[in-house]
Amino acid sequence: MSKSKNKVVVFLAAVSLLAASGCLEHNITTTIGEDGSCERVIVVPADSFRVPATPYPLPLRAGWDTTWRPAPSGKGQALTVRKTFAAYDDLSSEYAVPQDSGHLRVSVSVARKFRWFYTYYSYREVFHRLTLFTRVPPGTVLSEDEITRYTQGERNAALNQKIEEWIARSLYETLFTRLRDAIVNLHDPDLPVERFEAKKEDVFRRLVKVSSDGLLRDFDSVLAEQTSYKGRSVVLFQGNTITENGLNAFTEVLADVMKSPRVTMLRDSAYAAWKEWADTIDRSAHLQGVFVNTVAMPGIVVRTNSPLIEGSTLIWKFDGEQYGLGDYVMEAESRVENLWAFGIAGAVAVVLAGLILFGRRRVG
Hints:
alpha+beta, 13 strands
């Protein structure tokens, strides 16, 4: 698949198809001890003995054991980082370090609470939202319930189409803002900014059309069928460059919506806007990742939002599409019996029973 086609695919398929072709799978395993200690192991594949480019904040600082081993797949190497923490708060502190804006912000908390007969252990980890599609909030297209469902991994045609529209609107805001600013600077009475603002949705709907399978169509065919390029090949993106024919086709659509040939004066601004659009899509691919987060809890699990439970081991598998829409939250609570507490309670019960019997005999 060509790079130019990848741009269209990313736009149409909410980043998923491009991401699937080159995302690293991060395996993160956390073992929580009953004594207040815990261990974390992170394994990430790499093509060579170089730290892979990943949105995850790999802890390569002092105190972490870093080793290279052959990747489980048999291809290349795998970077493994490991650390044992004497206290739960030490793990939390590791992720309290400010992260680069190009990396995921992760927060972890583990706690232990004594409740006489039982000790409860709670775990909560959050992969905070990370996306470059920030110009339009997801809530303008999706409901809170839909955002939650998608973040948790639900997929269906209706949700997918809404995600595509949200990404389209966020990217379109770049195009619209640049063109509006250019029109303001022109001070051309035949191209009033009020008309362009009134036509904002019309331009969007001319660019974004839904195919019979419910997915957004690619720009090339959409632009071609509405312009003099109908029946001819129009490629908007060529590598990371905007083509002359693609820009001409877009200008024709814009002129038709605005009912003014004066939009040709906006070509430079349109080119810059489409270039920013393409760069945003390219950079968004680097924020993608696939994560398998495994947590071994003490005792019996009594509450969790994990989709996969194997005894007291919990597994979450998710990707960048999910934390791109909202915070991805992993939670669990487990319970360990305090046998000594049951022993004390039993001994007390025996003593009390004996005292009661002794008292009755004396009364009798």
